[in-house]
Amino acid sequence: MIKQIEEHRSCRFFSDKSIDKQIIRAIAEAAVRASNTGNMQLYSIVATTDRELLDALAPLHFSQPAARTAPLLLTFCADINRFSKWCRLRGAEPAYDNFLWFVNAATDALLASQNASLEAEANGLGVCYLGTTIYNAAAIARLLDMPSGVIPITTVAVGYPTDTPPLTDRLPIEAVLHEQRYHDYTDSDIEALWAERESSEFTKELLEQNQLPTLAHIFTERRYTQKDNLAMSQSYFELLCKQGFFNQQK
């Protein structure tokens, strides 16, 4: 395991030190070496360092510390626009305005984001993925002038961290690794896999703060509620249609 993977942590507070353009270039170069669909590179990266734009983006990420303090926000987008324009310029009619190619483009964008994050960390920078990109994708797309065929997928906040946060806990390898075929989980499997996390002091503090009986209730009643899930799903689907990724007439 390379050092950057082993020591990855989510940094949420950054100094105001700017990042050298050559380092940003190196991060982008690492991103473009990621695996992608058919060597089509169906993604784009918007690198925002302008303070006025950063300040406008921060509220769209719920003004969380990583979004407020990072000197660089990398917005990774699924992008069928560039490849489709190339096809048409060559007299070939593209057919990528559908759900299949959204999935392909989103996969490309996420793979590129992981490479970029590793390169950033190799240069002494900290990173934090901002899941809020999906929640306010339409507003982010407008602010960053994204045309039809381009949609935000995720954002990585990048900067020089002001502290060293602890490593985030993970489920044991047995939770995710299936040998030969998928083996479904028994109740006893689930109990064993979550035992350490549920018994941690951090979990106990969360339950006390939220006055809820289990960690599962934190997720379903506080962090990712059904109401929010449905609302975000609807708004993102509408943006997919608006941005030309889901042509319902075909």
The N- to C-terminal Cα distance equals: 45 Å
Give the biggest sheet. Answer: 4 strands, antiparallel
| Count of DSSP H/I helices | 12
Structural class: alpha+beta
Q: Name the strands of the widest sheet in spatial order.
A: 1-2-4-3
Number of DSSP strands? Answer: 4
What percentage of the residues does DSSP assign to strands (E)? 5-15%
Summarize the structure.
With 250 residues, this protein is of the alpha+beta class.
Describe this structure in words.
- This protein is globular.
- It is built from twelve helices and four strands, in the order ααβααβααβααβαααα.
- The chain starts with a helix and ends in an 8-residue tail after the last helix.
- With 250 residues, it is of the alpha+beta class.
- A four-stranded antiparallel sheet has the order 1-2-4-3, sandwiched between helices.
